[in-house]
Specification:
The chain has helices spanning 2-19, 34-52, 79-90, 112-125, 152-163; strands at 62-67, 70-75, 97-102, 134-139, 142-148, 170-176, 189-191, 214-216. The strands form three sheets. It has a three-stranded mixed sheet. It has 218 residues and is an alpha/beta fold.
Length: 218
Amino acid sequence: MRPILCMLLLLTAVLPLSGCGYSAYGLYDDKRLMDTITDDKGIATAIKTDLLDNSFSQGWGTAVYCYYGHVFLVGEVPQNMRDKAVTIARRHKGVRSVTTHWFSPATSETSDLVLSAKLRTALIGKDKLSSTRIDTEVNAGRVVLLGVVENAAERGLALDAARHVEGVTSVKSYLMTPPSAKDEGLKPVAIDPAPKTQPAAGGSAAAPKEPSLEERSL
């Protein structure tokens, strides 16, 4: 009886960890602290709600992501609404910078839903890559990667996986690495591999005094 009781106590201690190993982008595998993840989720939710309350639900969509207070707006928004979207995002407490990636209208033979599933499968199947820390946006064959990776090597693995998915025409990476103990900010690297077709129309707007994105081509 005593051995059974000990086994039950052991299972009770282990199961909560295995049952919530990761959330949207890897709760336990994310390189951010728990309170930072909570703050980021709160900022993203508040901005999304604010956008919906300001006529950003009329036929176009904007995805909102936040990592360490750095906000990313990704989607299709009319030219005359883009500055307004950035202004709305910047006014929220805790926002350190705002980067935008706007898609121009386009079509693809593969649906976004199907391509998103294929992309996620490729990321999950990539050896030595933790896909649970990577968020993805797909628009007419054009892929945007966002999130937090451990190092440049992981960033390269994610890019390689995305570029080899059938139906993907271009890949844009805003994958970040965790800040060091001496560095409060992040310097996300935007990588734009040469696309097979016309790339998405994108831009970036950073908050005052924030470092601009470093861009380089593969």
